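Closing statement on the adenosine-5'-diphosphate sub-project.
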Amino acid sequence: MAISIFFSANIYQVSVAEFNRDYSRQQSLISHSQLLPPSQNALNDFLEQRQVQYTEAKERILVRLIVINGFILISGGFISYYFARRTLKPIEEAHEALERFTADASHELRTPITVMQTEIEVALSDPGLTLPEAKEQLESNLEELAKLTYLSEGLLRLAQLDNNDLTRAKTSVKPLVNSVIDQVKPLADKKGIVIKHSTVADATIAAETTSISEALMIIIENAIKYSPEKSVVTISVKKDVNQVSIAVSDKGRGIKKADQAHIFERFYRTDKARTKQTTSGYGLGLSIAKNIVELHKGTISVASTINKGSTFTIYLPLA
Ligand code: ADP
């Protein structure tokens, strides 16, 4: 606006000066005209008319400049408001996500602490507490402590991934996948689940092996966790022109469309009741996996049909 007003003032001044010069030149031309010497009255009339035209022209220029500046002010205001809102949107969303995260984290941390506190208080106030009862009490406390450890490790891992630049090295996908399968096999065996594995061709990626193994492990463990006993989990590795895909499919309970958009968010779980940890964890696994994959410039996606099964696919660029 300052620039626009500055230029408008200049335009006005230059125009007025130009009018003045023109006016005086015309006046002297007419007064000294040899061809048609004007009568004094006619000359006065003419000069009066010129004066009126001159004042009107000045006013018109002034009004026009004010209208133009007003228009610039209003439209500029709207445009600035629109862009400011657009720029602030991601910041607003990040702020909301942080608030949600803090609220969820404190809720999840408080629950086991409250349970432990109540159990200990009840036990201490019981004068007839027997040794087996006390042992049972301690076992329950240990369970709550295990939950707290699991949760704090998850939170710590997310914090590390947030501020971390991974040290990546050329890695072969085939042995990496095989080693993860070896590690999760005991978990699958417990539920009688068979892991089928197919690799079309080996591929080389730039990866921090432990992190990529961790992401893959989370997805395979979920596939086992959310599948019925004695079912099949299939892992297939495919190589494209510039990327490799690792797909993990299960025949489990599936994920609703509405939930699919959120499962990669921190603390998001499809079963909302934050009850005992039977099959579910704390909803941190997939967000850790997503962070790891994105730090490797890859993507992770899900395709799922309720009661039929889910397929999680990690795409990673070739080295
Ligand atoms: P959790 O520790 O609860 O498993 P995750 O972040 O790993 O947390 O997963 C988030 C949610 O996504 C889970 O609570 C579960 O409801 C859903 N989910 C993840 N993997 C699967 C799967 N293979 N089949 C069905 N649901 C799944």
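The chain has two domains: 1-163, 169-317. With this model delivered, the sub-project is considered complete and its resources will be redirected to Aim 3.
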